[in-house]
């Protein structure tokens, strides 16, 4: 058997075959590294490998000495086997312990689940080899079991682990945390070795701090601490990582010299990035950074990458974002398809660089590439990995998800699009290629624009030299500490000092101050007011006298369900609809294990950003993981999809952030620029070639630097900062600070700079920081040059200080800060920044202060932000609140590089770094690059409405409070029963809130304040429970108002300072510290737990004087916490000033309104009739263009209108300038479809328009006709799912006469089975009729076109004999889509459509639309809409019943219309004012905008002149009929054909509107009105009005031609 090098079966592509060179073992060559192993182990290794690598030999020597070991070696050096082989050797020849629960002796921890699975799979080879070697040597065959525990582990395997653990457990940090916080921890007591892989990936993060505490908790379980073996890629400083791994014992560091070779190049695919070829695709986001044209670099990059992929066997393409990975992957596949077929795909895609929103994919199959990132499901990622390893997939486009040590097989090329985010990241990524020992790793970097070239060159050069960035272990992250303390104490009682000692044993907490530890315990023990924010309630009990800490009930569940350190970004899970939920995917990387779920979606596809989902609709197609998916349903926490192969779809986007360039890399980049600037052009080009840049990359970079030097005269480098000033397109000043030192320095600098400009100059600048500098925009800066009349009194010297009109008002000196003051300035400003708010939310989540409402289900990001904001309002009053301190620490230490900024300011002071100031007529090349990021930041910041929504919500609350303040009428609005019910709930007197145990007593005293024994008993408490809490030093017994009360010990200082209450002996000092506002706290809590009260009632409760209490209540009201007024209904309270907590009052008002919503003041029915046309865009609200037509169809879909009225009345009434061609254009494009819904007399019929995505949900149900063989043959012909022309249909029914075939076809149309891709045949059908119905709404015929025939051509063929068929059969015919199978989905869509169409939905409106099941069928859905806030229920319109539903805003508009009607104006018409003419509308009687005959009954027929009602003529929603509304009231009704007219009003405006409609052909070519209100039209009073409007008398009646 040929030997091979240790291309580590746990690192290499083939654990049993292949050859390769070994590292030079150096001085260890004389010693046998395998001497310490058992014979079977030596036999297997020497048979499988030629020799150990140096890393393995030195690691085994260190492990053999029994110490902790840190092995630092590059990818592919065999370090994983180095750690495992000694453990496998020991396990294979040592019998397992007698106790099966102690069998697990080796714990392997991987930071990512994919790596854990990879290691488990690759362990099979050495295990099998050891067994075979033992058999050959006649030794007992070892049975070493390996198990995995992660979020994807089935529940049955988790339960088995507790009783039968394997020898080796492979897990993740989060799963280890869960094991330690459950009964399964007993199965970990036998562990003696812990292997921590990829330690460099976690050591510098809070996830690493969390893991460090978990490892100390594990050691606490064991008889002696486990030996730790850490595996790391190249890392710096090594000592810091070794301290993280083994802070107490010290780890032996194994770091042999690296022989890893890299072949790196920086490639630019065009000659000049600033003058891109014109054939590049247009960039929809504007000119590319640094470029002047509209072309884009991306098509050229995509083509070059496709060339590289197709010329290599296996390629990984790395992108810096999930969004770019998806887009680039789709473009590579599109290019492959285009090359294979020779046909270009439609230009539906956007270039890959589009940075905001979602683009589109062309629907190309995954020919050469598939996407791999954290938002793709684990199953999809595993499939992609396997296909790449097996050589079936040429390329994978990935993010950092493939960066860590997963074995990807024989990858021969890595492509990096954009500069790697760091040197360490670049090494990890390029290390995926040549993953074998001694192999060369080949990488190609494609910069995205000229500014990216500099960093690409520097990073690749530092990669070759191994100059990675320094790693820093977080110090004392208090949010992680809080979470772990809850978990540690959930199962055991701990001595406080021992607990602190345990925490300090972990490296991140080695310097944890006692005060910080006590502060976190205080927070968790309920020190802060949980009645103001519920999640501040105690999670543990801290007995300060005994010095013990114990978890409270529920603490374990809280830690298990909400633990972990990865921020919850509210992503939506994407699942396949209808699949088996038991086969659903696991969590994404770093998430906690999920609790078992009941029901749910099917197999997991991946996850989408919340904003992406909010912008999506059911029926949309998007691409995820190179597969197209159609959205079937969007719930509150998941998106259900079905595959849509080959269908073009939107490309998703995800919002994320990164820390930016570190200072160390920034200094290197500046030094590189300085070096290039000092060289001659030839030398500089040679220098760049040595750095790995190709000719075009080098020429572009040198040209970029030359252009910058020409524009500014200086290059920004590590010794020069350039401040550039210029005016933008609006004339505002822009100031650009060019600096290479990176975003971690620039971010705090920008924060301080913005604060200075606001304070010193009164400006409100827009400041944006980036890796390459800072951009300031000074809006209206010229306003600082005040007019002379405002400066007349100024001292002369001050006027001289004003800037000249062509000079920026802020100079470079504004950017300079005292190095001794800048740190404090940044610290002062960070608390008001958006960064702090975001970090506070994440820290609060880690500290379990924002737990998941429903474990296993997503919490929307906006809800997290809202809850975090509420918590911050409470915490802001406490300067020592641990999570506020932690958020500030994280900003200053982990995000910002404040020491680096201080150092930079010192260098500026000492002139080690100079500051150069220039003014330019236009932005320099460097400035254009920065401005591109500036535009993107503010452009897409506006796309995120959360901040605006929150501000709007707060402003609404403040207006509500000001409205309620002092309003006596609230007494009439608040329901007495509601008030009594809420008061009982607040006081925990309802059955569901009764006290059930000792902890319930503690909660009641904490939430309600001091209670007497009788009051506790009234709430269900046993008197002994309070006494037990007193013995545990958790409650005290005090006298308040002359009566004994039980109080929570946390209230001791508050009661003493506010009431002068004597405290019992033995209260810990922590609870007797002075309280800032003791009486305010007591009264605020009293208000939160009571309904409205008087000052006398509160004073009596606390035994105080009324005046003292009143003063404090006024102070609380001034702060917005209380509201003053008269609230309680009924007698006995009149005249007394009452107080109520603002939130309690809101709850009272909401509940009262819900209870009284049937009695809300309703509007007259006429207001609904005037409102409905507005809501549907008629009259002055008409829409325009194709988009307007789509909106009209969206609102009308699902309802039917007469075909004869559709294009003469219904659509023109809603669209300005409507023409049939507009509808034809959209139907031909597939944007609109139509269907029949029943035939009418005279070739007319009911038709319905739909958007194709919802046609299967909303179109009217088919009416099965009496099928004949012709009907059946037509249906069979169309069953293939494609459209056929009439001549093709005749081929399927060859023996049927054309007229019969056309008639059968239209039978199927009116029955709702068949449709056409145009409305031309429908128009032809309507125009061919000869009955009144056929001409009901026909336009006058145009003059016939002359036909010209040549001599000898014979007679003209009749139209019916054309091979293409008659005009009534023109176009392409097809079957309508089948109905959605789920009636619930159809009902929900129908209800939403009804609400959208009517705004205010009533029983009559539903009945008029012939909805299946009637009002009862949609009532349940509408009720569910109300519960979810999508609709409101109330008594909105008089006389229409209580079951009325309205969309948001519709009820208010309805009331607004009613108010204007009462004031004599119609509605919200532009320019309408009191006294203007009434608003007149002419509608088809069957138009959905006509409320009469639907939501409203028709008025009685008007009486004739003889006072008798018009006999035989009643209005109705009939095809062909017209109704004229005046301010919502019916004025005229014209029967079909126009022979009869009903008139409720003889207003000339109404008659003139009718005449205008007749002239436009609304009732046919000629209309003769014979009778009005049942009497002859000639000679009637109304007849004279008609004549005045243009009707002419004839013997038959009054005639008007169209």
From TrEMBL:
Any Pfam family matching the protein: Helicase_C
Helicase C-terminal domain mapped to chain residues: 300-479
Protein keywords: ATP-binding, DNA damage, DNA repair, DNA-binding, Helicase, Hydrolase, Isomerase, Nucleotide-binding
Residue ranges, annotated region (Disordered): 1-33, 581-604, 1335-1365
InterPro entries in the cross-refs: AAA+_ATPase (IPR003593), ATP-dep_Helicase (IPR052511), DEAD/DEAH_box_helicase_dom (IPR011545), Helicase_ATP-bd (IPR014001), Helicase_C-like (IPR001650), Lhr-like_DEAD/DEAH_assoc (IPR013701), Lhr_WH_dom (IPR045628), P-loop_NTPase (IPR027417)
Record-level Gene Ontology MF annotations: helicase activity
Domain Helicase ATP-binding: 60-253
Feature: compositional bias, Low complexity: 21-33, 1335-1361
Matches recorded under CDD domains: SF2_C_LHR
Protein name: ATP-dependent helicase
């Amino acid at each position: 058997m040929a030997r091979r090098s240790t291309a580590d079966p746990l690192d290499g592509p083939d654990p049993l075959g292949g050859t390769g060179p070994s590292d030079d073992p150096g001085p260890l060559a004389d010693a046998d590294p395998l001497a310490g192993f058992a014979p079977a182990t030596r036999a297997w290794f020497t048979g499988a490998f030629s020799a150990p690598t140096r890393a393995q030999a030195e690691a085994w020597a260190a492990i053999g000495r029994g110490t902790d070991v840190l092995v630092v070696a590059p990818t592919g050096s065999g370090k994983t086997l180095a750690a495992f082989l000694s453990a496998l050797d020991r396990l294979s020849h040592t019998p397992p312990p007698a106790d099966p629960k102690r069998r697990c002796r080796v714990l392997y921890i991987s930071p990512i689940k994919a790596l854990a699975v990879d290691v488990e799979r690759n362990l099979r080879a050495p295990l099998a080899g050891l067994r075979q070697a033992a058999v050959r040597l006649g030794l007992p065959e070892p049975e070493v079991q390996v198990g995995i525990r992660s979020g994807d582990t089935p529940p049955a395997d988790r339960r088995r682990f507790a009783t039968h653990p394997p020898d080796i457990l492979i897990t993740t940090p989060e799963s280890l945390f869960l094991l330690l916080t459950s009964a399964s921890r007993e199965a970990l007591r036998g562990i003696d070795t812990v292997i921590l892989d990829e330690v460099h990936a976690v050591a510098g993060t809070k996830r690493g701090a969390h893991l460090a505490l978990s490892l100390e908790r594990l050691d606490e379980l064991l008889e002696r601490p486990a030996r730790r073996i850490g595996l790391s890629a190249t890392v710096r400083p090594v000592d810091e990582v070794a301290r993280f791994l083994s802070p107490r014992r010290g780890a032996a560091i194994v770091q042999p010299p690296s022989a890893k070779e890299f072949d790196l190049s920086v490639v630019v695919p065009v000659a000049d990035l600033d003058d891109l070829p014109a054939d590049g695709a247009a960039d929809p986001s504007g000119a590319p950074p640094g470029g002047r044209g509209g072309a884009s670099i991306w098509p050229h990059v995509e083509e070059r990458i496709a060339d590289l992929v197709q010329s290599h066997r296996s390629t990984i393409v790395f992108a810096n974002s999930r969004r770019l990975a998806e887009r680039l992957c789709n473009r590579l596949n599109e290019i492959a398809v285009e090359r294979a077929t020779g046909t270009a795909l439609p230009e539906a895609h956007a270039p890959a660089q589009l940075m905001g929103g979602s683009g589109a994919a062309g629907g190309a199959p995954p020919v050469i590439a598939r996407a791999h990132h954290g938002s793709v499901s684990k199953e999809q990622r595993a499939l992609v990995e396997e296909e790449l390893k097996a050589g079936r997939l040429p390329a994978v486009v990935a993010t950092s998800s493939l960066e860590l040590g997963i074995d990807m097989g024989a990858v021969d090329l890595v492509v990096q699009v954009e500069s790697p985010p760091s040197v360490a990241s670049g090494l990890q990524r390029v290390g995926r290629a040549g993953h074998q020992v001694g192999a060369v790793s080949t990488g190609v970097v494609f910069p995205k624009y000229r500014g990216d070239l500099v960093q690409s060159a520097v990073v690749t050069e530092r990669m070759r030299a191994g100059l990675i960035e320094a790693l820093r272990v977080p110090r004392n992250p208090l949010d992680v500490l809080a979470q772990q303390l809850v978990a540690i104490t959930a199962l055991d009682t701990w001595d406080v000092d021992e607990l602190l000692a345990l925490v300090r044993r972990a490296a991140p907490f080695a310097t944890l101050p006692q005060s910080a530890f006590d502060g976190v315990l205080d927070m968790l023990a309920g020190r802060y007011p949980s009645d103001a924010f519920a999640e501040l309630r105690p999670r543990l009990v801290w007995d300060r006298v005994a010095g013990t800490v114990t978890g409270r009930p529920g603490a374990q569940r809280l830690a298990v369900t909400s633990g972990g350190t990865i921020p919850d970004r509210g992503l939506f899970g994407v699942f396949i609809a209808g699949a088996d939920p038991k086969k659903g995917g696991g969590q994404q990387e770093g998430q906690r294990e999920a609790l078992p779920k009941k029901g749910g979606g099917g197999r997991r596809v991946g996850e989408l950003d919340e904003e992406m989902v909010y912008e999506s609709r059911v029926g949309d197609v998007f691409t995820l993981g190179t597969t197209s998916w159609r959205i079937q349903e969007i719930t509150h926490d998941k998106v259900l999809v079905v595959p849509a192969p080959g269908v073009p779809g939107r490309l998703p986007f995800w919002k994320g952030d990164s820390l930016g360039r570190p200072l160390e890399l920034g200094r290197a980049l500046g030094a590189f620029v300085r070096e290039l600037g000092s060289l001659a052009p030839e030398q500089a080009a040679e220098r760049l070639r040595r750095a790995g840049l190709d000719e075009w990359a080098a020429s572009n970079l040198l040209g970029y630097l030359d252009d910058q030097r020409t524009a500014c005269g200086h290059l920004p480098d590590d010794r020069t900062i350039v401040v550039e000033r210029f005016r933008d397109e609006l004339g505002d000043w822009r100031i650009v600070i060019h600096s290479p030192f990176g975003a971690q320095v620039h971010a705090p600098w920008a924060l301080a700079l913005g604060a200075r400009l606001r304070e010193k100059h009164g400006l409100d600048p827009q400041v944006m920081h980036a890796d390459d500098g800072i951009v300031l925009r000074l809006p209206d800066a010229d306003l600082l040059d005040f007019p002379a009349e405002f400066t007349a009194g100024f001292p002369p010297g001050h006027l001289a200080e004003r800037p000249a009109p062509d000079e920026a008002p802020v100079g470079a000196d504004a950017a300079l800060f005292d190095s001794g003051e800048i740190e404090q300035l940044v610290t002062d400003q960070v608390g008001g920044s958006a960064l702090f708010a975001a970090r506070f939310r994440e820290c609060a989540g880690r500290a379990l202060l924002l737990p998941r409402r429903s474990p296993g289900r997503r919490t929307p990001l906006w809800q997290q932000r809202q809850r975090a904001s509420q918590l911050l309002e409470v915490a802001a009053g406490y300067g020592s609140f641990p999570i506020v301190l932690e958020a500030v620490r994280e900003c200053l230490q982990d995000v910002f590089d404040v020491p680096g900024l201080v150092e930079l300011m010192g260098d500026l002071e000492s002139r080690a770094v100079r500051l150069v100031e220039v003014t330019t007529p236009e932005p320099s090349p460097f400035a254009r690059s920065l401005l591109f990021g500036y535009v993107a930041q503010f452009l897409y910041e506006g796309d995120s409405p959360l901040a605006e929504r929150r501000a709007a919500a707060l402003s609404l609350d403040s207006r509500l409070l000001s409205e309620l303040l002092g309003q006596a009428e609230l007494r009439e609005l608040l329901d007495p029963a509601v008030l009594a019910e809420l008061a009982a709930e607040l006081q925990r007197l309802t059955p569901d809130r009764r006290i059930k145990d000792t902890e319930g007593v503690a909660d009641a005293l904490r939430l309600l304040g001091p209670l007497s024994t009788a009051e506790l008993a009234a709430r269900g408490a046993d008197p002994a429970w309070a006494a037990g809490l007193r013995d545990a030093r958790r409650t005290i017994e005090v006298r308040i108002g002359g009566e004994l009360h039980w109080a929570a010990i946390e209230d001791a200082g508050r009661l003493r300072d506010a009431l002068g209450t004597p405290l019992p002996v033995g209260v810990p000092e922590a609870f007797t510290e002075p309280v800032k506002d003791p009486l305010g706290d007591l009264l605020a809590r009293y208000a939160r737990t009571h309904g409205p009260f008087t000052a006398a009632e509160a004073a009596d409760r606390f035994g105080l004087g009324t005046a003292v209490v009143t003063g404090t209540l006024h102070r609380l009201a001034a702060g917005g916490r209380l509201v003053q007024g008269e609230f309680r209904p009924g007698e006995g309270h009149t005249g007394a000033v009452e107080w109520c907590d603002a939130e309690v009052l809101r709850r009272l008002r909401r509940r009262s309104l819900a209870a009284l919503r049937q009695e809300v003041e309703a509007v007259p029915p006429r207001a609904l009739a005037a409102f409905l046309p507005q809501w549907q865009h008629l009259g002055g609200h008409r829409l325009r263009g194709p988009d307007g037509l789509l909106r009209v169809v969206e609102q009308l879909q699902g309802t039917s209108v007469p075909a004869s009225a559709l294009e003469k009345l219904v659509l023109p009434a809603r669209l300005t300038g409507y023409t049939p061609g507009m509808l034809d254009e959209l139907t031909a494009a597939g944007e609109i479809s139509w269907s029949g819904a029943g035939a009418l007399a005279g070739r007319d019929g009911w038709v319905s328009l739909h958007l194709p995505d919802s046609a299967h949900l909303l179109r009217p149900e088919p009416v099965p006709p009496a099928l004949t063989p012709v009907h059946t043959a037509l249906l069979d012909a169309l069953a293939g799912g494609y459209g056929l022309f009439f001549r093709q249909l005749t081929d399927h029914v060859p023996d049927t006469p054309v007229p019969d075939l056309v008639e059968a076809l239209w039978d199927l149309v009116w029955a709702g089975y068949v449709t056409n891709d145009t409305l031309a045949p429908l128009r032809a059908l309507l125009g061919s009729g000869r009955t009144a119905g056929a001409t009901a709404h026909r336009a006058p015929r145009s003059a016939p076109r002359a036909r010209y025939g040549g001599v000898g051509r014979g007679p003209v063929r009749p139209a019916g004999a054309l091979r293409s068929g008659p005009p009534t059969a023109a176009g392409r015919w097809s079957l309508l889509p089948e109905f959605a199978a789920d009636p619930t989905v159809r009902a929900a869509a129908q209800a939403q459509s009804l609400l959208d169409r009517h705004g205010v939905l009533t029983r009559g409106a539903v009945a008029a639309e012939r909805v299946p099941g009637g009002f009862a069928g949609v009532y349940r859905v509408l009720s569910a809409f109300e519960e979810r806030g999508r609709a409101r229920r109330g008594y909105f319109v008089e006389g229409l019943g209580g079951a009325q539903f309205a969309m948001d805003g519709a009820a208010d508009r309805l009331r607004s219309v009613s108010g204007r009607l009462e004031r004599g104006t119609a509605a919200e018409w532009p320019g309408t004012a009191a006294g203007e003419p009434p608003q007149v509308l002419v509608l088809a009687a069957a138009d959905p905008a006509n409320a009469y005959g639907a939501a409203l009954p028709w008025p009685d027929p008007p009486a004739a002149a003889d006072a008798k009602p018009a006999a035989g003529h009643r209005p109705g929603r009939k095809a062909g009929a017209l109704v004229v509304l005046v301010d919502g009231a019916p004025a005229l009704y014209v029967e079909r054909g126009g022979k009869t007219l009903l008139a409720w009003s003889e207003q000339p405006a109404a008659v003139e509107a009718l005449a205008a409609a007749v002239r436009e052909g609304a009732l046919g070519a000629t209309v003769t009105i014979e009778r009005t209100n049942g009497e002859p039209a000639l000679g009637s009073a109304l007849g004279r009005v008609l004549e005045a409007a243009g009707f002419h008398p004839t013997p038959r009646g009054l005639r008007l031609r169209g």
